[in-house]
């Protein structure tokens, strides 16, 4: 992951250890993924065998891990990093790097 956004220059790590809290957000995403997948298997597959739950939840959780990680970091930036989305800013060129 780059240190700053190539478009707007926003620092992705405002301070050391900033994303320590993101693992708790990611944990909440994982619990939600487990619960939704388990409920879907129960209702759609008619309460299958235990191994189907284990394989199904494991596959969905593994597939969704990159999304959960990225969204948990993005939420940390929005909630605690003081970052606010500005749609027009993405169309402007990035500030020039100083040597």
What is the secondary structure topology, with strand pairs?
Elements: H1 22-44, H2 50-80
Structure in words:
With 99 residues, this protein is mainly α. The chain has helices at 22-44, 50-80. It has a domain at 21-84. It is elongated, with a radius of gyration of 19 Å. The two termini are 22 Å apart. The relative contact order is 0.18. The model has no long low-confidence stretch (mean pLDDT 82).
Q: What summary fits the major beta sheet?
A: none
Write the H/E string, N to C: HH
Distinct helical segment count: 2
Show unreliable segments.
Answer: none
**Radius of gyration (Å):** 19 Å
> N-to-C terminal Cα separation, in Å?
22 Å
Molecular shape: elongated
Mean pLDDT level: 82
List the defining traits of the structure above.
99 residues; mainly alpha; 2 helices; elongated; DUF983 domain-containing protein
TL;DR?
It holds the Pfam family DUF983. This protein is mostly helical and 99 residues long.
């Amino acid at each position: 992951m780059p240190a700053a956004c190539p478009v707007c220059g926003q620092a992705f790590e405002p301070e050391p250890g900033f994303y320590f809290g993101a693992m708790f957000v990611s944990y909440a995403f994982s619990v939600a993924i487990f619960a939704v997948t388990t409920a879907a298997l129960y209702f759609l597959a008619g309460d299958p065998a235990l191994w189907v739950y284990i394989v199904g939840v494991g596959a969905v959780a593994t597939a969704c891990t990159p999304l959960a990680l990225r969204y948990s970091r993005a939420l940390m930036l929005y909630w605690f990093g003081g970052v606010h989305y500005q749609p027009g800013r993405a169309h402007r060129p990035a500030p020039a790097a100083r040597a």
